[in-house]
Amino acid sequence: MLKKIDRGALFLEKQQKIFRCPKCHREMTQKEKSLICVNGHRFDLAKKGTLYFLDHQIKTEYDNEMFAPRGRMIRSGMYQPVIEKIADVIQLGNMLDVGCGEGSFLQQINQLKANPVNIGFDIAKEGIYLASNQPVDAFWCVADLTNLPFTDQSFDTILNIFSPSHYREFKRVMKPDGCVVKVIPQAGYLKELRAVYHPDGEAYSNEAVIQRFTEELHIDHRERVTYEFQIPEENRLDLLEMSPLEWQVSADVKSNLAKNPLKTITVDIEILKGH
Ligand SMILES: [Zn+2]
Question: I want to staple 22 with a disulfide (CB 3.0 to 4.6 A). Which of 88, 116, 149, 256 is the partner?
């Protein structure tokens, strides 16, 4: 079996045309375990077979403590109906997972529908480190959403699951007949958790995010998916740790909920597909 770094090099050898230099925007070619642009900017594969395209480390709010429980929740089946819908609408070919985190969504989508060329990127290197362990044929890198290290018109599908968008870059790297598939939380998303963490919080709405999508792209498909998920006992504490909702919650509120964790949770999301 190939080592991860050799698998990474093999991917770059076959797919080097997809990449462009984030520093000077020129083409790059694979040389052994690196990508090098015509101006000599060079990006070396890490042991895990991943690439790091940032100039400097960007501090993010996400870390291992959140990625690991999030991955376990995704694998527990919490998002299975969502993953099935996504697998239905993707266009096979070159697929980019924007803000892939620890990679469970990309892995699970591929289990339902094997896609030939998969690239996941995130700004958090902790996420990419975990993603490189996923049992899926994919390439993982750390990159900046606003300056993607990919050539124009490279992707058939851009996945944008619970992550920020950058439409100028999406339109640039999307093939002319490609698509963006975006998943947005809706009003009822994690409402049981929200009720405990932020009982006085305002009603949750993502109308502005949806509005923006419709302004930037033609909508081909739009679907709301709402259900209650019975949380397996071993995942009940994971739910409490996986979500940004918990960031501003006091230790008291958290430890009380941990003593008597939620048994069901509502998933309420909108899937938008556009081009
Ligand atoms: Zn360069």
Answer: 149
Residue 18 Cα to ligand 1 midpoint, Å, equals 14
Domain boundaries, the chain: 1-46, 50-185+203-223+269-274
Q: What distance in angstroms lies between residue 120's CA and the mean position of ligand 1's atoms?
A: 21
| Spacing, Cα 43 to ligand 1 middle (Å) | 10
Q: How many angstroms is it from 36 CA to the middle of ligand 1? A: 7
How far is the C-alpha of 88 from the C-alpha of 82, rounded, in Å? 10
State the distance from the centre of ligand 1 to the C-alpha of 49, rounded, in angstroms: 21
Q: Taking the CA atoms of the chain, what radius of gyration do you get in angstroms?
A: 19
Predicted confidence (pLDDT) per residue in 110-143, tens digit: 999 999 999 999 999 999 999 999 999 999 999 9
Average pLDDT, the chain: 93
Token reading at 156: 């058939």
Pick the CATH number of 50-185+203-223+269-274 from 3.40.630.30, 3.40.50.150, 3.40.50.10490, 2.60.40.1180: 3.40.50.150
**Ligand 1 centre and the CA of 37: distance in Å?**
5
DSSP bridge partners of 242: none
Helix (H, G, I), strand (E, B) or coil at 233: helix
- Residue 5's pLDDT band (cuts 50, 70, 90): very high
Å from CA of 251 to ligand 1 middle: 47
Q: How far is the CA of 255 from the centre of ligand 1 (A)?
A: 50
Q: How far apart, in whole angstroms, are the C-alpha atoms of residue 79 and residue 71?
A: 11
CA of 39 to the centre of ligand 1 (A): 5
Position 197 confidence tier, pLDDT thresholds 50, 70, 90: confident
pLDDT in tens, 170-193: 999 999 999 999 999 999 999 998
